[in-house]
Amino acid sequence: YGLQKAAEENLYNKLTSEVENVDEETMDKVEEGCACLAPNFTTNILLLSGKGSECLCDIMYATLQHWPHLVYSHGLHQLAAFMLLVITPHRAEHAFWSLLGFLQTKLYPAVAGQVTLGCFIETGVLELLVLQRMPKLSSHLSKMEWHIPHFCSTWYSRVFTSSLQPEVVRAS
Question: Where is the Rab-GAP TBC domain (predicted)?
Fold first, then answer.
């Protein structure tokens, strides 16, 4: 709420109406991200509808324009979809501000909401912890040429959004 009050009036509407400021490659990634959401989102009627999909794209475009140094990732798309479903597409602007607040203050705050960079740091820490506390597992993974960041990087940015149904969060 504080972010929204501190911003210029109607900023969300302005950002969603100026989509031409988003480069073509990022637009393609955003569109692709909508189609590649986790199964619990792709079965949700709100996102399957044209309105829900459009709202999700608007939130993504507005977020990327408002925060130009933010790098698009599918994890970011997952978080935006979760916010949209918890808050409902009828209140897409609130989902946008909630996403920004979450990125800036809760998810990897030391890396300014950069989901990919934050995830890289977290999985690197996990890899060190496994090495220190589970040396046999670490040795086995090393022999298999498996690196923890390769198979659990998406887990960090989507841990709750892929395991909790939005309806459960909304009800609590």
Answer: 1-172
What kind of architecture, by CATH, is found in domain 11-106?
Answer: Orthogonal Bundle (1.10)
In angstroms, the CA 12 to CA 66 distance is 9
Compute, in degrees rounded to 10, the torsion defined by CA atoms 26, 94, 83, 167.
Answer: -150
Give the pLDDT confidence score for residue 88 in this predicted structure: 75
Tokens of 150: 């390769």
**Contact predicate 102/95, CB 8 Å:** no
Domain range list for the chain: 11-106, 109-165
Distance CA 85, CA 83 (A): 6
Residue with tokens 């607040």: 101
